[in-house]
Amino acid sequence: MSVQTLVEISPEALVERLALAGRAAQRVLAQMSAEEKAAALRAAARSLREAESDILVANARDLAAGEANGLTKAMLDRLMLDPARLAGIAAAVEQVAALPDPVGQVIDRSERPNGLLLSRVRVPVGLIGIIYESRPNVTADAAALCFRSGNAVLLRGGSEAVHSNRAIHAALVRGLDAAGAPVDAIQLVPSQDRAVVGAMLAAAGLIDMIVPRGGKSLVARVQADARVPVLAHLDGICHTYIHAAADPAMARTIALNAKMRRTGICGAMETLLLDARFPASAEVVAALLDAGCELRGDARACSLDKRILPAGANDWDTEYLDAILSVAVVDGLEAALDHIDRHSSHHTDAIVTADAVAAERFLNEVDSAIVMVNASTQFADGGEFGLGAEIGIATGRLHARGPVALEGLTTYKWQVRGTGQVRP
Asked: What span, in angstroms and rounded, lies between the C-alpha atoms of 334 and 337?
C-alpha cells in the first residue's frame, strides 16, 4: 500500500496496519543471528553516508521552516545537521552493530529438587513505538538500538524534523534491504496528524512499549494517556552539590561543564547547591556568570555576586534547558540531600567532594537514576556509559532505569527443561 493511501485512512487504521507489518517483520528479525543483524546495521550506516547530500538538503528545509516558525536557538541546535553530525550518526549505528547482542543471554540458571532445570533468557520486547520531537538523530539511534535488540520499531517524529526524518529513514531502509533484512522492522509513520499519536498510545496488544523523547508536554501526555507500557523521564532537573571538602578548581570546572557545555540536553545541571562552608563559592558563581549564564539564587547565593537575580518559588522545580541556573547555599550534606529529595526529578544528581564518607552517603541516599561523584552531569548519556547510542533516560523504578540501550530493550522468559516430571 502506498504512503499516500496510508495517510488517507483513519489514524487508528494506519497504526494498526503499520503495527501488524512491524510485528510480522519482528518475527523474521527474531530468527536472525547476531552477525546478520550487525551486518544489516553496518549496511544501514553505509547507506546513511551515501545519502549525505540528500539528508542535508532535507535538513536545510526543516531548518528554514523552523526559523520561519520561530523555533528557539536551542531547538534549532537540536534540529541542525551538518556533515560532522551526520557522520556521528552513522558512526553511532556502527557502534550499536559492534555491541554484544543481548538476545539469548542467559541471566541465571537453577535446578529444582525435582530435577527441573530453569533458565531466564533475554528476549526482545516486540514492537516498540518511539514518539519524539525535533532531534533527527533519534531516527537512526532508536532504529539501530531496536533492530540490534531484535525489536521492530514504529517511529513517529515531530513535524519540525519531518523532511530530515524521512531522508534518514529512507537511507536506513535501503541499507536493510541491501542486506536482506526485513525492511518493515524499521517504519516511520507517514503522517504528522497528532491523532496518530493518540492511536499509538491506545494500541495495546499491537505496540508492546512506548518511548517518548521530547519536551515536558509530550512526555506528560504520553504518560497520562497511554494504555501501552511507557519508558520515559518527564524532567531533567539535575543538581550538582559542591561539598565543603570540594577542590575549588575541580568544583569550578565541573560546574561550568555541567551547565554550559550544552544547555539544552536533559543531563544539563539546572540547580547548583553550594555548601555554606565551601570557601570558593564566589569564584564558582563568577565563572558561570562570566560564561554568560543567568543565575537565580536564594538570599545567601545573591550575596555572593550582585549579578545574581533573586530566585522565585518555581525556579527550584524548573528544567530551563537554557543558560539559566538556580543556585542555593545549603548548610551541609544533610540540607543538600533534603533539597534534592524535594526538588530532583530523579534523573541525574552529582556531588563534588574530596570526602569519601560524604561521597558514599550521597551515592547511597540520593534516589535518582544516575548518581555521580566528582563528575559532570553531562555524562548522563548512553554513549558515555559505553552502551552505544541510547534510546532515552528512564527515571522510573520498573524494568529499566538510567540510560536505556540494548539490555533495556529486552525482557526475559523462563525456559524450563524436564525429564518427564509431573506435579503431584
From this structure: 5
> Lowest mean pLDDT: which of 4-13, 19-28, 40-49?
4-13
Residue range 18-38, pLDDT digits in tens: 999 999 999 999 999 999 999
- Tell me: pLDDT of 158 over 70: yes
The fold of the 3-233+396-416 domain, in CATH, is: Aldehyde Dehydrogenase; Chain A, domain 1 (3.40.605)
* Numbered ranges of CATH 3.40.309.10 in the chain: 238-379
Which residues, other chains included, contact 319 with Cβ-Cβ below 8 Å and sequence gap of 6+? 216, 235, 236, 237, 266, 270, 345
pLDDT-above-70 percentage for the chain: 98
H helices of 245-347, in order, are 248-260, 281-290, 299-302, 333-343
pLDDT, tens digit, 9 for 90 and up, residues 248-302: 999 999 999 999 999 988 999 999 999 999 999 999 999 999 999 999 999 999 9
Query: What is the helix (H) or strand (E) element at residue 106, kind and residue range?
Result: strand 106-111
In the chain, ranges of CATH 3.40.605.10 domains: 3-233+396-416
Kindly provide the residue ranges of all beta strands, DSSP E only, lying in 159-285, ordered along the sequence.
186-188, 209-213, 238-242, 269-275
Question: CA 408 to CA 284: how far, in whole Å?
Answer: 37
DSSP state of 100: P
CB atoms within 10 A of CB 364: 9
Report CA torsion sign: 133, 225, 200, 230: positive
Per CATH, the homologous superfamily of domain 238-379 is: Aldehyde Dehydrogenase; Chain A, domain 2 (3.40.309.10)
Kindly report the pTM of this predicted structure: 0.83
Radius of gyration of the chain (CA): 24
In whole angstroms, what is the distance from residue 236 CA to residue 231 CA? 15
**Residue 91, helix vs strand vs coil:** helix
- What are residue 349's DSSP bridge partners? 239, 371
Q: What is the mean pLDDT of the chain?
A: 94
What average pLDDT does range 319-328 have in this prediction? Answer: 96
d(CA 300, CA 303): 5
Helix (H) or strand (E) holding 25: helix 11-29
